[in-house]
Design brief:
single chain; alpha/beta; 12% strand
Amino acid sequence: MRAEQHRVADDGAKQAARLKVGFVLSRSFTLSAFALFVDTLRLASDEQDRSGRVLADWQVIGSTRHLITSSCGVQVAPTSDFVDPSRFDYIVVVGGLLTVENPVDQQTITFLRQADARKVPLIGVCTGSFILAEAGLMKRHESCVSWLHYKEFRERFPELAVRSDRLFNLDRQRGSCAGGSSAADMAALLVRKYISRDAERNALEVLQIEKARTPSDIQPRRPLYDDYDDARVKAAMITMEQFVDGSMPIEKLAAMVGLSRRQLERIFIEKTGMSPAKAYNRVRMERAKSILAQSKAPLIEIALDVGFENASQFTRTFKRTFGQTPSQHRAAALRAH
């Protein structure tokens, strides 16, 4: 086949693509999240590992063709200028370091708002949901972020709904995911919806992923949660950490995981050997323990952060939990370093 015929065949394949995705990469974007998302599409688009754009197509779109530097230093060149956003089934915004002051330019914000006006679904990957929220595009939608970024999201956007107990979320015209390997899970969901389960299976097998996780799967967390195999217990304890000041009533916590208070009490006793209230207290003490080891914050400040009215009450609870006072723990942590 001559080169011209190849081009015609490629054009035909692109026109036949069932899933078209445009990627917007922020400054200092997370390369792994972008790579896993786009490679899932690539492998689902053709048989085995041929990489043809048969059933899916994708473009990296931008206001310029300048190279975009990822957080690890690898650079990616946009493959398309901003075009009519309705050409795409989804626009995926890949975020990265939150320390970057202006992760995208004003032209990009304008493009994302045009996509919203034309009812093109928008997905925030990694910290991409921060960019969408900053642009005013996450109102009436729930954002899913990494537990690592949950507190900062709440501080920046206190009026918006956010969660960090799930891997990803697809909420009507919006999607968001915690980043990392969950980018492949979200891409697999789109492949299954727009192409087929066979295409999804092909992509995951080549990527050496045993199976795609679902939106209800829990984010991998710290060791505190690894001891428990019940998803409701894990979700409840993650929510406790999100409200580490103790402001979440147990009744509301139970409702958030679809249980009554009595049901939650029974499951916690069965799975953890603790009541939800005792587990909540443990979560708060673990946070205090971490702050003590990593900062020079005054005890009263830490006490208030984890929901105590004064330092003496905090000290008594901490000692009862860990067998040493907060000051003793801090001193031991400093010696260890």
